[in-house]
């Protein structure tokens, strides 16, 4: 809408039409003036409007316990607490509120959706399982404390890391034991299990290197494994000792009267 | 010659028997033999299998008679010689069937290689049987000759048993009883002997020996000690068999005679006789009955001496 002007050369008609247009279009029909405005002139309405606007430019801000009134021409400063909220004013007439990169939130319990952080406890409000969808790592020297460790696999994979405890390693139940995969990852493992004890038992590993003996093993026991003077008669299998096992073997033949050897006996020599 | 040293058990070891122990087994062979000699002598009435021996004596000659004068000495019969044959000893031989050597029948010994070997029959002969036969065949009549025989002038000899059981002499030496002849009794019975000596056959009683049982190989080729009964039985079988049937010069046999092989056993049976040419005696019964007879006279001489002998062959 351009400003209406009447040139010196314009006709009165032009003046009349411009005036009427000014009155109806530019100033408007007074009849349509809001009924709350009581003024009957433009100036009066403007003043009334000003008075009304000027009286309502102030507004209050509160955090629930503290209230501040922001009056016309006053400036509201938004300052985020360090490590909490950031406020940035930019053109045009833009206020950007953000969270600090390193957010510090005071208080004891904080919920992120269904995840609650309370003190040093993280929990889920809708599940008994808190899932960390990524690798979980504790820095050196930190302790991971758990009463129960489970796995989505058949076993908990500790990779190439050693398991260390200054306490005891327990397996429970009838099928509990220790599996050794061995050098080749395949379907075959070695399992160590315990026969159901009927009393507390202690199996002590000797202070020596070597291979543990099992009943199914063959060719494992050497002379150095056996303490001197400990193999008794009862340990010997029947019909097990041959001449080759005798030291400095000597023979005694039993010969019949025809000179035929009917029996040969072997004994240890001196 | 393979004399072995059987093994016996002592203090947990098998040890070789010493000579004394082996000899005890030899003596036990003799004892086993003595219990039932396989070469046995018995006294029979006549026709014994051993040679007959003769007892000779003088008897008076037949009387001569004459109605006019005494018959001359030259025409009177000289004393006669009476001969009585004694053929009263019979030898019976019973070999039996001894146990054969199975290869493990006999005692064991350490052979030259130090191994244990069972004795064979040759070893047993050389070690036990032949030495036992040697003892049996000796001229002695002690217990080591048990089961063999000897002659004695006594019907009872300690350590021996009179064979007949009835004091039956196997030989009687007689001579003419010169005292029984008298001129007044012409014609005297020509043969009026008197017994000088009777000879009896005796068997030596054996003596049980305590010996150490040797060891042998049983059926499983294990070493085992003989029971006394088992080893005695083996010894008995084989000593008796050897005495009868040895082919090695160790069978036994008896002979009787003035000469013969083997060792004499006991008293020589002496046949004595008077050596006189006759004691010419006369008797006048009446004037027409003149009688003469020559009675035995002279010194006692030995006609023969007979011996019972035991010989190996």
Model description:
The complex is a heterodimer of chains A (about 270) and B (about 325). Chain A contains 2 helices and 11 strands. The longest helix of chain A has 16 residues, at about 10-25. Chain A starts with 11 loop residues before the first helix and ends with a strand. In chain A, the strands form 5 sheets. Chain A has a 3-stranded antiparallel beta sheet with strand order 5-6-7, with no helix packed on it. With about 270 residues, chain A is of the alpha+beta class. By secondary structure, chain B is an alpha+beta fold. Chain B has 3 helices and 21 strands. Chain B has helices spanning about 20-35, 120-135, 230-245, and strands spanning about 5-10, 15, 40-45, 55-60, 65, 80-85, 90-95, 110, 115-120, 150, 160, 170-175, 195-205, 215, 225, 250-255, 265, 270-275, 280-285, 290-295, 300-310. In chain B, strands 10, 11, 12 and 13 form a 4-stranded antiparallel beta sheet that branches. In chain B, strands 16, 17, 18 and 21 form a 4-stranded antiparallel beta sheet that branches. In chain B, strands 5-20-19 form a 3-stranded antiparallel beta sheet, with no helix packed on it. The model of chain B has no long low-confidence stretch (mean pLDDT about 95). The interface between A and B is medium-sized, with 13 and 22 residues.
